[in-house]
Amino acid sequence: MSPVTLLIIALGVSADAFAVAVGKGLGMPRLHLRTAASIAIAFGLAQALMPLLGWLLGTQLEQFITEVDHWVAFGLLALVGGRMLREALRSEDLPGEGTGATKVAMLVTPRELLVLSLATSIDALAVGVSLAFLDVNILAAVIVIGAVTCVLSFAGVALGQRAGARVRGPAEIAAGLVLIGVGVKILLEGLGML
Predict the structure, then answer these.
(1) Burial class of residue 83 (count of CB atoms within 10 Å of its CB; 0-12, 13-18, 19+)
(2) What is the mean pLDDT of the chain?
(3) Which residues pair with 97 in a beta bridge?
(4) Which among 156, 145, 146, 148 is positioned nearest to 104, based on CA atoms?
(5) Is the pTM above the cut of 0.90?
(6) Each residue's pLDDT tens digit, 90-115
(7) Are 104 and 98 in contact (CB under 8 A)?
């Protein structure tokens, strides 16, 4: 997998974390750096761990589905991307609500941070399964996905604090389309069309 494709996947899977980070920033009258850093680190770690777990699961299944691995990767990425699109288009971007109707608050408790980290990284588990069927250095993928999520989450809190809810929906739509596009590319390569 090329570094550009890996970066695109990292941007795509970090969209939920970015959206929640924007939501958390909405409730801040001023940027609270400690909270923004806590959110960024927790989201980055969760987004790095889940693809690794998915990859480990996928490598165990690889021998059974080698003939259709490109279809599996396409299906998982299209499913994740489609869900992101559906949620973004269905969302009304109400102030005071983030992805999954999480309440916006200036500070985040450790429990809330754990729940949000896991909730925003479930999609990365499915992406990790699809990575098991591709030629990818999983360590590099985990580092890139975690770092990109960390940076985007911090930026999301800051952006949410400054810009408000109008950024959340378009970011989720773009991320969903990107993941579907990467899935289509993998499918076409697997079918020998690219």
Answers:
(1) middle
(2) 80
(3) 103
(4) 156
(5) no
(6) 765 444 444 433 333 446 788 888 88
(7) yes
